[in-house]
Structure formats: structure tokens, C-alpha cells
Amino acid sequence: MFPTADLPDTIPVFPLPGALLLPRARLPLHIFEPRYLAMLDDALKTPHRLIGMAQPREVPEGCEAKLHRIGCAGRVTAFSETEDGRYMITLSGISRYRIQQEVSGFAPYLKAEVTWDGFARDLGPGEEDNGFDRAPFLDLLSRFFESRGLSTDWDSLKEAEEELLINSLSMLCPFAPEDKQALLEAPSLSTRRETLVTLIEFALRGGSNEEVMQ
């Protein structure tokens, strides 16, 4: 757990479409681009070992790429190096943040000044969702997985804690990057669950099927 006072004002930012990280969840990543290998090397030298994940905004072709202002920072808690110099890492979600401004410098990757204000709940204990009704939720999820040809360990889903279940599905389900951003910005676990249900119902009604699984 991080006290708010220990969170840095500037962090490296990894813009990766569709890769969602949430507080108290874990995100495995495969790092191979030289600029992001440099980012990881630098992050490992810091006491906090934080990397901020962020979603690029959808912009018209030819326009300057921009990032959503809200992302989630994770601490590097596991990594291994392959023989050809790539890294397999795990980020453990610490807290969401809001980008204040991008930082120019000599690093080959993006850095940003961030504020952690408004996300104190992320640093606390796990959330509960008092309105969660597991049986109809899993029935809806089963129809969604069947429609997408996906499989899972249903026994584990039946036993998983509410936050772990909802956040894991938010991260892993094949939704578009803008939908992932909506799940990230949900102010509470119950709001995230409601957003997740809406996205699943939309997909089952014939919404876009062009999303890519992480």
C-alpha cells in the first residue's frame, strides 16, 4: 500500500490501446520496444517502480495523437528477461491519476506530471458492491462468452470476490479502448459493474465486434 504522500509527481506513461489496469488488480505485459525497455529500466531504478498506463484517444486520421487524462499507475511487482532482451512483467495497480501535463526531456518515452487527487479510495481496502446479484450477472456473462467463443473457469467466477470478479472482467473482456476508458473512470465498483453490464448487453444486441482481446 502506498501513502498518498509517497506517490511521485512525475511518472513514465505507457500508452497502450485496450490494456486496462485497475487498482488492486494485476496486468501482465510483454515489453519489447526499445523505448519501453528503457522506460522499464528507469522505473526499476526508482523506489516506487511505478508505470502509468493510459489509453490513447480516438482522433481523426492525420490529427495529433492525444491521451485520455485519467490513467492508472501500477508498481512493477514481477519481471523476467528473455534471452533476446525482452521483458515479461506484471504491474500491480496502485491508483488512478490525472495527467496535468506531459514532460519534455531526453527520455525516449513519455513522462507526465500527474495528480492523484480525487482517487484516495484507490489506495484503501477493496471495495464492495452491495447491489451485485451474482447469478443473473453470470448468466449474462455466459451468453456473452458463448457469443464470442470464449471460455473460462466458471467455478472460480462463482467463488471470486466481487471486486476481483468485476475488475478482472473489465480488464479482460474484449471491449474497445473507449469502453475500457469508461470502465476505468467509473467512480465506484457498483458503477463499474453497471457499465460492464451495459457493454455486455450492447454487444449481445449486435454491437461492434471489432474489439481485440488483450
Describe the structure.
It comes from Rhodovulum iodosum. Pfam families: LON_substr_bdg. InterPro entries: Lon_prtase_N (IPR003111), Lon_prtase_N_sf (IPR046336), PUA-like_sf (IPR015947). The protein has six helices and six strands, in the order E-E-H-E-E-E-E-H-H-H-H-H. The protein is globular and about 50 Å long. It folds into two domains: about 120 residues, LON domain-like (Archaeosine Trna-guanine Transglycosylase, Chain: A, domain 4, Roll), CATH 2.30.130; about 70 residues. Helix 2 crosses helix 6 and helix 4 packs across helix 6. With about 210 residues, the protein is of the alpha+beta class. The chain is about 30% helix and about 25% strand. Strand 4 and strand 5 form a beta hairpin. It has a five-stranded mixed β-barrel.
Q: What structural class results from the helix and strand content?
A: alpha+beta
Q: Going across the major beta sheet, what is the strand order?
A: 1-3-4-5-6
Q: How widely separated are the two ends?
A: 27 Å
Round the mean pLDDT to the nearest integer and report it.
90
- Shape verdict: globular
The stretches of 5 or more residues where confidence is low (pLDDT under 50) are 208-214
What is the subunit arrangement here?
Answer: single chain
Kindly provide the name of the CATH class of the largest domain.
Mainly Beta
Q: Would you tell me which CATH topology of the largest domain applies?
A: Archaeosine Trna-guanine Transglycosylase, Chain: A, domain 4
CATH architecture of the largest domain: Roll
Characterize the biggest β-sheet. 5 strands, mixed, barrel
- Approximately what portion of the residues adopt beta-strand conformation? 15-25%
Helix content: 25-40%
Number of helices: 6
Tell me the series of helices and strands, N- to C-terminal: EEHEEEEHHHHH
How many distinct beta strands? 6
CATH superfamily label of the largest domain: LON domain-like
Global Rg? 18 Å
Number of domains as seen in the coordinates: 2
Domain Lon N-terminal: 11-204
Protein name: Lon protease-like protein
Organism: Rhodovulum iodosum
